[in-house]
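Reopening closed ticket. The problem is back. First fold of the pair:
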Amino acid sequence: MVAARVPITPYVIKYYIDTSNVDLEDLEKDANLKNINGWLDSSAQPTFNQLNQLSKKIKVPFGYLLLNDVQKESSSLIEYRTILNNEVDKPSRDLLETIDDMEDKQNWMRDFLIRNSYEKLNFVGKFTKEASIQAIAKDIRKTLQINEKWFLDCQGNKSFNYLRSKFENAGILVMQNGIVKANTHRPLNVDEFRAFVLVNEYAPLIFINSTDSNGGKIFSLFHELAHIFLGESDLFNDNNVSNPIYRNDLEVLCNNIASELCIPAPYFKELWMENTEKNIFNKIQDIAQKCKISMLAVAVKALKNKYIDEEEYYKLRSESLKYYKKEKDRKKKDGGDGINNATSRIDKRFFEFLSNDIKSGNTQYTDAYRLLNTNRKTFDKIEKLCCYD
C-alpha cells in the first residue's frame, strides 16, 4: 500500500527549520527525514508520519507545517538588537517561548500587586537619555542600596546572588534559566541573547540567560536595569564591544551606565595603576576577578581609557572567549542539583507571593504549576528551599 503524501509549502518548512536551532544535517540523520532536501526543493513530499516526526524534532506545532505561509509569532522585544547590534530577523522558538513564559509571570505579578494595593515603582522611566551617566548610576545605587564598590561586599562567586537580592528588594523581578522552561533538551543560545527586560511600572522583569558566564550575567543585570530607569524594554546581546558598530544611542548609554555600575571610573584607574602585572590578559583577569565582572567588561574600560589599543582589545576578547568556553564546558560537566537549579530560576519574591496567594485561595495550584513549569512534588521542594525573612 502506497503511503499518502502530505502537500507542503517548501518555504514554510525551511523557515521553521531555520528558526529551530536544529541543523538540517542532523535532521537528515533521522531515517524518517532522510529525504528532507527533496521536500525543500519540491521534488518530494512527506508522509503524515514523516511530517509529524519533523514537527517533534524542530518543536513546531504540526498544523503550522501544513500552512501556505509562515504563522507569524512575534514579540515587541524582537524589534530590538541582538549580537553586535544586528536585528533578530528569525527569532528562535526557544527565545519566543521564553519571552511568552516571562510575560505570563510578569502579568500574574502585576495583577497580584494591583490587587493588593501596591504602588507603582517611582524609578521606572525616571530618567531620559539626556541625563548624565553619573547621575543615573548614582540614583541606581541609591535605589538598590549598594555602594560604588559593591563587589567588595561579596564573597567568592556569590556576586550575582548578592545583586539579585538587591534587585528583588527594590521590586524588580529577576528570573534566570539556561533552558526553555523546564525542558533540558532545549538549551538557550547565548549567541542569540544574553538577557532581556520587560519594563512595567509595577513589576519590571529582567530575564538572564544563565548559560552566560557569571561576570557576563552581572553586566547584563546592570544593562537591563539601566533600561528600566530609562523606561524602555530591551533584548540584549553584545560582547561589550566598544566600537562604532552600535547604531542605537540608547544601547550605548545603557552599556556605559552598566560599565560605571560594574566599576566606577576613578576606582578602575586606581586598580589599573596599582596592578603591576606585565601580561595584559593576566592583568585584566585579576581586575575582573576582584570586581566580580567579566574580562570583556574590563577590557572595554581599558580600551575606553586608552590603556590598550584596539588590536590588543580584540586579541584579549578572543582569548577571554576561549577562557570562558573552557569554564562553561567545566560547568556543564559539573551538572548540578535539579532542585537547586529549579529554585535558582525563580525570583524569590515572586515565589513567596505566589505561594501566599495559593494559600489565600486566589490562585489555583494548577495555575501555579503552569507558571513555574513544575509539578506538586517539585513545588513543595522549592518551597522548602526558599527561605524568606
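Second fold of the pair, where the issue appears:
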Amino acid sequence: MTVHDLADGFTLRPMMESDVDAIHTLETSTNPHPWTPGIIRNCLTTGDRCWILEKGGALAGYTVTMFAVGEGHLQNIAIAPSFQRQGLGQKLMSFITNDLKALGAEVIFLEVRVSNRKAIELYLKNDFTEVGRRNNYYPCAKGGREDALVMVRDLSFAE
C-alpha cells in the first residue's frame, strides 16, 4: 500500500501500530461503542486494508476494509469531529470503492446502526442499498441493543 495524495492537502496512507492510540481517541469521539485498541491492532495483523486520512500530520479519519473471494466489507470508517462536514467521508468512500474494485470485489457489504443517519445518508449517496437487518446487533452505551442495517453496493456497474 502506498501514500495517496488527495485534494486540499489531505493524504491517505497505510495505518501503522503507532497510530493505534490516536485512532482509539478518534473512535471514542465519534462512536457510542468504540473499537478497543486491541480490535484496531487486530486489523493490522489480519490482512485488513487499514488506511489513515491525514492533513499536515493531523489525523482526520480512517477506514478499515477487508476483501475475500470477490467481496469487500467496509468494517469501519470515521472522520474526526474537527474535520467533519468537509466532504471527507465521501472522499474515503470513493477511495474504498476504487481500492476494493481494483482487488476484484464485485460487491461491498457493511452494517450500520439504524440510528446513524449521517452514515446511512453517505452510504445511500454511494449507491448502497439496504438488503437486511440484524436485530439487536449493536450494544448501546446505556445498555440494551440496537439493530443494524445490512447494506450492499454492486460494483459490477461502477466506473
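Update: turned out to be a display glitch only; the data is intact. The domain at 4-154 is CATH 3.40.630.30 (Aminopeptidase). Strands lie at 4-5, 10-14, 49-55, 58-68, 71-79, 107-113, 129-139, 145-154. Please close again.
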